[in-house]
Write a structure and sequence with these properties.
With 348 residues, the chain is of the alpha/beta class. 26% of the residues lie in helices and 25% in strands. It has two domains: 173 residues, Alpha-Beta Complex (Quinone Oxidoreductase, Chain A, domain 1), CATH 3.90.180; 139 residues, Rossmann fold, CATH 3.40.50. It is built from eleven helices and 17 strands. The strands form four sheets. Strands 3, 4, 5, 8, 9, 16 and 17 form a seven-stranded mixed β-sheet that branches. Strands 12-11-10-13-14-15 form a six-stranded parallel β-sheet, sandwiched between helices. β13, α8 and β14 form a beta-alpha-beta unit. The chain is globular, with a radius of gyration of 20 Å. The structure holds nicotinamide-adenine-dinucleotide (NAD) and zinc ion (2 copies).
């Protein structure tokens, strides 16, 4: 088969590699599309070394069609459309014993810790596969994983009907948090991002979304004004490496300041810098800070909503490129960071 192999850091080679042999307890999937994630952009230059050693095949957001079913597997047939859940937890650590799988101390992912989906085929155990309805476009199947992040965050924060929400970061993660939140609440959603093009994607696709550009107005003041001084029920932080903006506090502190009494902040951004907060501001509200990592069983929920037409996957897709141009796709994303949301690679 052909695969986009990261031969050395910053250097993909589109080449022939051995097609995985399907074991009796595995299913061979013919990958149709894979999506490039922010994590892949860190793996590419070697930030994940030695966790992601080269040469290897990255790609942890992927969808495809069942090509072959191992003779010990039931419930799958060639031609089934499937999304691949890349997460591998150990089952033994204290978190796993409590079924808190995203907190597994040795959590691994296909395409991060081992070969993944930037290839024509992958062979995986059936518990990692989730069938979509046949009418779902192949490109959308590749987005189930990132949607899982958005749904998991909302489930962690227990978003409920009527909740008013603020989301810092209208990038890939912020947009899926928004789409997932909209399946759970019709309440106002504030989107905070200095990039106008990303705010417009949110506003253009959903009613009752208020865009806030922190370079133009203070998000906490805007939120207070629109909520009659009350604040939001939940504030999500989906920024990570925050751009410093004069006169505006960092995203996590702004999230806390925008909360109503008893509200929740849910942090997803994986910045390396400390995020300064003033605990008094949280304690006065007896607010909670929770975090959300990857997903935990949300593939089924995502697929139910996709099948029912409740999500807007096309709003996330900025560009589709052939798998043979994986190197060019990564270079493009490095050069024009804020221009694209999801770039899909076509392996069909
Ligand atoms: N916890 C998880 O499960 C999980 C999963 C995937 C990604 N992440 C992390 O989530 C973060 C976001 O990922 P992404 O792919 O959406 O990145 P992204 O770059 O697409 O989005 C980040 C957005 O934040 C905006 N931003 C920067 N500074 C800001 C500020 N001061 N205020 C408001 N917005 C600001 C940027 O303009 C950008 O649009 C990253 O740190 C990533 O590593 C976490
Ligand atoms: Zn990812
Ligand atoms: Zn574990």
């Amino acid at each position: 088969m052909k695969a986009a192999v990261l031969e050395s850091y910053n250097h993909f080679v589109w080449k022939d590699v051995e097609t995985p042999k399907v074991k009796p307890d595995e299913v061979l999937v013919r990958i149709q599309f894979a999506s490039i994630c922010g994590t892949d952009m860190h793996i590419f230059p070697g930030d994940f070394h030695p966790r992601s050693p080269v040469p290897f095949i990255p790609g942890h957001e992927m969808g495809g069609v069942v090509a072959e079913v191992g003779n010990g597997v039931s419930g799958f047939n060639p031609g089934d459309k499937v999304a691949v859940d890349p997460i591998i937890w150990c089952g033994e650590c204290p978190a796993c014993k409590r079924k808190h799988y995203p907190a597994c101390t040795s959590l691994k992912l296909l395409g991060v810790d081992m070969n993944g989906g930037f290839a024509e085929y992958i062979s995986v155990p059936p518990h990692m596969l989730f069938k979509t309805a046949p009418h779902i476009p192949d490109q959308h199947v590749a987005l189930v994983e990132i949607y899982g992040i958005g749904f998991h965050a909302n489930n962690r924060a227990q978003t409920a009907e009527g909740d008013i929400i603020a989301i810092w970061g209208a990038g890939r993660v912020g947009q899926v948090i928004l789409q997932a939140a909209r399946t759970k609440t019709t309440g106002t959603i504030f989107m905070v991002d200095p990039l106008e093009n990303r705010l417009q994607i949110a506003v253009g696709n959903y009613d009752n979304v208020i865009p806030v550009n922190p370079k133009k107005e203070n998000p906490v003041e805007v939120i207070r004004k629109h909520t009659g001084g009350k604040g939001v029920d939940i504030a999500f932080e989906a920024v990570g490496h925050a751009e410093e903006i004069e006169g505006v506090n960092t995203p996590v502190r702004s999230c806390i300041q925008s909360l109503r009494g008893g509200g929740k902040v849910c942090v997803l951004g994986l910045g390396d810098e400390p995020a300064p907060i003033v605990f008094k501001e949280l304690i006065w509200k007896e607010g909670q800070i929770i975090t959300s990592r990857v997903s935990d069983g949300e593939f089924t929920e995502v697929i139910d909503h996709l099948n029912a037409g409740n999500l807007k996957p096309d709003a996330l897709i900025s560009k589709v490129m052939p798998g043979s141009e994986t190197q060019q796709a990564f270079e493009l994303l490095q050069k024009e960071k804020g221009k694209y949301l999801k770039v899909l690679l076509d392996f069909s």
